[in-house]
């Protein structure tokens, strides 16, 4: 697979900003490390922070897209094959970008990543209905307000916490472990419906 100039710049930022904030990486160092010219850098990005923002946005959108429920379904209502496929897709993606996740969770990038993740999660939820699930399996949309806001923050924190813990354990969990984690998350009475 051919690595694009944009990808080279992102990878270079991971290497150069591992021990310092992205904003402190000189563009000249980033260009040299990426092996691209200045015009390639400026074609894609304005500065090192815009590289970080792009990387975070790309990750969050893909991660959340992979977690999306089929239209009209909740996670609790997914059949086991669909749930297994969803979890396998998430695991495959997370394994493929684990070096970025470690980078996002590093001391210098964590707050930026967390704030962006919460924002992207809130935007993601706008394309879903947040519903309360009753014991008989029926659902009722949760009205926007304090409970809605708290639930979204808690759910986003859980999804972020899974990534943090997974990274702490060197991404050693496989799809089966991930399914158990998501089962625990989705056994609450409030869920997202696609």
TrEMBL record:
Keyword DNA-binding: yes
Cross-referenced Gene3D superfamilies: Tetracycline Repressor, domain 2
UniProt keyword DNA-binding present: yes
Domain of life from the UniProt record: Bacteria
UniProt keywords, alphabetically: DNA-binding
InterPro entries: Homeodomain-like_sf, HTH-type_Tx_Regulator, HTH_TetR
Pfam family, one: TetR_N
All copies of domain HTH tetR-type, residue ranges: 3-63
Family matches, as SUPFAM superfamilies: Homeodomain-like
Binding region for DNA: 26-45
Protein name as annotated: TetR/AcrR family transcriptional regulator
Taxonomic source organism: Pseudoflavonifractor intestinihominis
């Amino acid at each position: 697979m051919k690595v694009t100039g944009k990808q080279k710049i992102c990878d270079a930022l991971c290497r150069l900003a591992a021990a310092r904030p992205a904003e402190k990486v000189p563009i000249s160092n980033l260009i040299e490390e990426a092996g691209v010219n200045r015009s390639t850098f400026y074609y894609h990005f304005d500065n090192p922070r815009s590289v970080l923002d792009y990387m975070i946005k790309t990750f969050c959108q893909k991660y959340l897209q992979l977690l999306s429920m089929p239209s009209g379904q909740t996670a609790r209502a997914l059949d086991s094959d669909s749930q297994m496929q969803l979890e396998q897709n998430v695991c495959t993606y997370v394994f493929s970008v684990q070096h970025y996740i470690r980078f996002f969770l590093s001391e210098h990038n964590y707050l930026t990543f967390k704030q962006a993740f919460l924002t992207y999660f809130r935007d993601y939820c706008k394309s879903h209905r947040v519903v309360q699930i009753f014991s008989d399996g029926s659902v009722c949309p949760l009205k926007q307000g304090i409970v809605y806001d708290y639930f979204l923050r808690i759910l986003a924190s859980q999804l972020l916490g899974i990534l943090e813990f997974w990274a702490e354990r060197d991404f050693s969990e496989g799809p089966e472990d991930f399914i158990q984690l998501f089962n625990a998350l989705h056994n609450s009475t409030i869920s997202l419906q696609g």
